[in-house]
Design brief:
Strand order of the largest sheet: 3-2-1-4-5-7-6
Bound molecules: S-adenosylmethionine
CATH class of the largest domain: Alpha Beta
Largest sheet: 7 strands, mixed
Number of helices: 13
Number of domains: 2
Amino acid sequence: MRLGEDKGRSAASRQHVAVMVDEATALVRAPNPLVIVDATVGLGGHAAAMLEATDAHLLGLDRDAAALEAAADNLARFGSRVTLRHADFRSLDEVLDECGIPCVGAILADLGMSSYALDDPARGFSFRFDGPLDMRMDRREPLTAYDLVNEESEEELARIFYEYGEERGARRIARAIVAARRRRPLETTTDLRLLVEGVAGHVRIGGINPATRVFQALRIAVNRELESLNALLDRAPHRLAVGGRLVILAYHSLEDRPVKRRFRELAQGGGFSLVTRKALRPSPAEVASNPRARSARLRCLERCAS
Ligand SMILES: C[S@@+](CC[C@H](N)C(=O)[O-])C[C@H]1O[C@@H](n2cnc3c(N)ncnc32)[C@H](O)[C@@H]1O
């Protein structure tokens, strides 16, 4: 699906229920920020709540042009209080410099994917739908999941599945992919799902289809998600004003571990304090109404006078 075609999608299909909105908004509102960065504006759920709860200007970033288009619609009522940029949050410094903003009162990053992109078959993120092996969040980037699956070495594929998917059958799956693609390229999400199920079984004890881990791993590799997160963790704390807060919502341990480690290092080094000593978790009521919230972990760091 190209960007223009997205306009044809119904409003109902542009859905993503924002996670831990009240908790994130309360943390962001406390320092009474003049400028808030939403580093993953998505469809604008958190952004709208933060704009309603403060008088701040909001700078919203997203790698996904289709999400930004939806955010522009959903945040239109806030008028000139909102600036949107099509950018990876790894470029936070460059975007802030271009906008002439030296430091900000709050930065929120709600990591991962929006359900909006995940549920779009044409984006190829989910094995639940048949679609091309694409998986790019930013469709200006050249590398797709098709390229990795059909061209990467067996060793590198096994590393990706093991490190980013924590998949125990990583080697067997990588070997089967390399054998299959000698006959013909793997073109679609269904080609890959069937291959993985053939090697690793249909549904494992615990109920997770092995394709879940393989698809997560490929998505992380295609979008270099952990590199982006590490760049954000290096840069964002230093763009906070004194009293400013960095709030990060992570959905799996590969994301939460570096956040926890970096926040601890900064707090121990002085100049920052942990607002959340332990990660906040969603309430049972939120998990019941939005299963996607189940794995969320929210952490908050504050810049102090040094
Ligand atoms: C979980 S969704 C955010 C949902 C949003 N908080 C809302 O309320 O609608 C994550 C969003 O972050 C974007 N994203 C992921 N990695 C990114 C990165 N490195 N830089 C910028 N945006 C990113 C995705 O495209 C997606 O739209």
